[in-house]
Design goal:
6 helices, six-stranded parallel sheet, alpha/beta
């Protein structure tokens, strides 16, 4: 099973990247699961326009096409998903059709990025993705990891394994003949 983990924060040293990296490693620890971690910050897409061929578009397209499922990890910015993430994702359309998707929303506050989830949910359905109904909300992300990079927040630690189990189940159901 190949899973693309797309990190959507455009900020350097983002907490969303730390969460995406942790979830990617957790998935890879499972037998038969391979992940590709894509940091949209590193790809630095220009504003959507007819820019011709872009190297970063080829990189992201390759990750999307080779994935059996896509896990998006992103923060909430001003009540929605990051504009830079939406811009990068808008370079593609057919790559998402009937693709299993899941989302982890990240917030510095107590609500775990619920508004970002709603914006993402509408987008994912519009592009034809098959979205896991549950998402993983990460609240108070700045206190999630200890100095060793291990998650210490009890709700996250009790929720993320089940979330990843459900996403792997969805991918398997959709991709198995």
């Amino acid at each position: 099973m190949n899973i693309a983990v797309i990190q959507g924060s455009p900020r350097s040293e983002s907490n969303s990247f730390k969460v995406a990296q942790f979830l990617s490693e957790s998935l890879m620890s499972r037998q038969g699961v391979k992940t590709t971690l894509v940091n949209l910050k590193d790809l630095n897409f220009p504003n959507f326009d007819d820019h011709g061929e872009l190297d970063q578009a080829h990189q992201l397209q390759k990750a999307l096409l080779s994935a059996d499922g896509i896990l998006f990890v992103f923060p909430e910015y001003n009540g929605g998903m990051p504009g830079a993430m939406k811009n990068a994702l808008d370079y593609f359309r057919a790559e998402y059709n009937l693709k299993p998707m899941a989302a982890t929303t990240v917030s510095a506050g107590p609500f775990g990025g619920i508004n970002a989830w709603h914006a993402f949910h509408s987008w994912a359905l519009y592009v034809g993705g098959i979205l896991l109904p549950n998402n993983l909300k990460v609240s108070n992300v700045s206190s999630l990891f200890n100095e060793k990079g291990e998650p210490v927040e009890k709700h996250f630690n009790s929720n993320y394994p089940k979330f990843l189990d459900e996403f792997c189940w969805l991918i398997e159901k959709i991709t198995t003949d």
